[in-house]
Amino acid sequence: MKLRTLTAVAAVSTLALSGCVKNSAEGDAVIDVTSSKDDCTVSAATAKSGTVTFKVTNTGDKVTEFYLLGEDGLRIAGEVENIAPGTSRNLTLQAQPGTYFTECKPGMVGEGIGTAKFTVTGEKLAVSADEKEATDAAVESYTAYTKDQAGALVTATEEFVAAYIAGDDKEARRLFPLARRSYERIEPTAGLFGDLDPKIDYRKPGAEAEGLPFTGFHRIEMDLWLDEARKNYPGEKIEALDAAGRKKVGEQLVTDVQALYDRVHAKDFVMTLDDITNGAIGLLDEVAAPDGKLPGEEDEFSHTDLYDFYANVEGANVAYQSVREIALAKGKKGEELVARLDKQFKAMFELLETYGNFDDGFVSYDTVSQAKRNELGAQLNALSEPLSELTGIVLGTK
Amino acid sequence: MTEHDQAESPTEHLESKGVSRRAALGLMGAAGAIGLTGGVAAASHLPGNDSPSKAKVENASVPFHGEHQAGITTATQNHLYFAAFEMTSTATRAELMSLLEDWTYAANRMTQGLEVSESGATGGGPHSPPDDTGEALDLGAHSLTITFGFGPKLFDKRFGLESKRPQALKELPSFAFDLLEDQYSGGDLCIQACADDPQVAVHAIRNLTRIAFGRAQIKWAQLGYGRTSSTSKDQVTPRNLFGFKDGTANIFSDEKSDLNDWVWADGSDQPWMDGGSFLVARKILMLIESWDRVRLQEQENIFGRTKGDGAPQSGGKEFAEPNFEMISTATSAPVIPMTAHMRLANPHQNNGKRMLRRGYNFVEGNNDLGQIRAGLFFISYQKSPEQFIAVQNNLATDALNEYIRHVGSAIFAVPGGIKKGASVGAGLFT
Fold this sequence. Notes:
The structure holds two protein chains of two kinds.
Chain A: E1 29-35, E2 40-42, E3 46-48, E4 50-58, E5 64-69, E6 76-83, E7 88-95, E8 98-104, E9 113-121, H1 131-165, H2 169-185, H3 187-192, H4 196-201, H5 204-209, H6 217-224, H7 226-232, H8 243-264, H9 273-288, H10 305-328, H11 331-353, E10 356-357, E11 361-362, H12 370-387, H13 390-395
Parallel strand pairs in A: 1-4, 3-9
Antiparallel strand pairs in A: 1-2, 4-7, 5-6, 5-8, 8-9, 10-11
Chain B: H1 10-15, H2 20-31, H3 54-59, E1 79-87, H4 93-111, E2 145-150, E3 189-195, H5 198-212, E4 216-227, H6 256-262, E5 277-286, H7 288-292, H8 296-303, H9 341-345, E6 356-357, E7 360-366, E8 372-382, H10 385-394, E9 404-414
Antiparallel strand pairs in B: 1-3, 1-4, 2-3, 4-7, 5-8, 5-9, 6-8, 7-8
Helix pairs in contact in B: 4-5
């Protein structure tokens, strides 16, 4: 999937597609999708709101997937998986008006291909009165997102590690913050697996405090930004890793992110509604923590904290978008909260985008003044306060 | 409810609500919450020498509404938490208005010993963070006062308040020996929370800060323990960290005529300032270790008072009128040295200028060199900032300057008292 940094949350409602319903033939509109080896063609770029069916035919040589993504290019509005070569499957959904993106994923991992804009016009559909149905759809959508990001993480990490092991430091430094992006979007989910997060994402002080071997992204970061590492830890003798050392930590990281992928794709992996909403808060807490991005401690050698910051907010936004319709259906309080969250997510993205984007890069965080960090912190607080009320609203027990 | 109808649009109204969104909507809408007097009877504050029972101190509350804001002539409580805020970079005029409404609502409740909203610390259901942070549960109001002020920068063009700025509200000039740091200085808004329990004061600022997220953020804050001034003759004059009674010549709450002459502003410049005052805050570090090595005679010469009972060096008891003309026959020099702090700060040496002081001691651990980081958080209230400026300029030759450093400075216009049903500073937006 091409990297996008679209500001997600224009106040229009996208969402509430009821997920994938297989083998439905009742659709008002049937749109043909061809997933070839290297493209993803869609027979129409627009549809009217209502029941829409994508008939996906796999003409390539690998098992493929088809995605309809939300306006942010991240949230999964609907997906159909496991389309064997030479076969076709349908994705049928209740499409609300809004902007979407279509894409295919031959091989079912990594970034999607043939990403194209898809617009749904017409009247907004009434929200499902069936709360169970809406909840199931939200959980399904968010679970699919988590799996998708885990896949993207594997691919991006492999690419990053390959450059690092090959000794292409310049390329590895460029790929470092990009490879971390998917991890940062789903960090609280990864945190559910207590053994993996320490291996993949522990900072040097954290690993040492717990007596763990220092591995993962930040171990490689330290090796790639050796001057900064020696500056930060002047009392230690930090040596560059040799080729064998690089191979060892690199391959270990790939093994660990693959383990994460396997866990979230396991049959017994289930998420709940409050996993989603509390996960969103968890993502913002990751930013604000004393060893997080806001104080510039997360990426203490590379100073790429703003990439992680942005990805954390993206992940929180996807979680929010997954339950936004549920919140809206909770009456006046829900509507008020949605209005505030729409506004604050937008403001947060806009402020972060003044520092760059994934395509062109973000500015190095060590150049961001304390006053500017305070401004980021103030906006983060403005977003975190209403977000902390989301669980109470969507669970509707208050 | 009328105050709340002034928001620019219904959307702004909903989006910007801090407290009302938190389960307080019903109360705000239906009952006219701003005017509520609270569940705790509005007992008047108890004078310090009364040896009041523990329960009386705990439950004492100070009326929130009145001609002047509480927390100025209120008998000085034992603890302070002071916070200066800056409006966020995106804040609008409507958000400033809604913030002051929400702060007023919450402050009124907390000063009456109530939780910050109706649902409070435990009544909001298991799935939402509680409105009230809860650390003041069971503590009683402890004479909590919450006093609001507006800094000079609030009146720049951001909020359309240029024409509402009192002419006298300007950044303070530089003074001799200033060593000011931005991280302890300035601010668009301030809140002074005073109480006889430190946790009650901290709870107030913490909750008001939380309500402000998205609209304003803390720029700096100061925790003070141990009042250094009295605002009532019923209170014993306390000591500063140098061990001296300072501020004996303070204006007391029963000196109505002096309060009118020197503390309360009138509405002639800005009607919203009628019954208000100007607040000057100075963070003053004390060089404790150096001071402690000064011999007693020198210490007394620096202050111009005896250390034991705080009497002027010219004789008498603490409240005796100092005789600045008295010459020592032994030294042929003035008994109260020309550089004594008390001489230079005394109204008689400042064309009669007085001000109401409300400072607190602070200790913040140690600095990197192992020295105690401590001092005086000076607060004064005056009718015009000129009073402070004149006295501070007069202190340029103060012998005490060798042992203190001013590191923080701020000035705020404190609006008049809050009327029932209105918000603090409501007059800014008329």
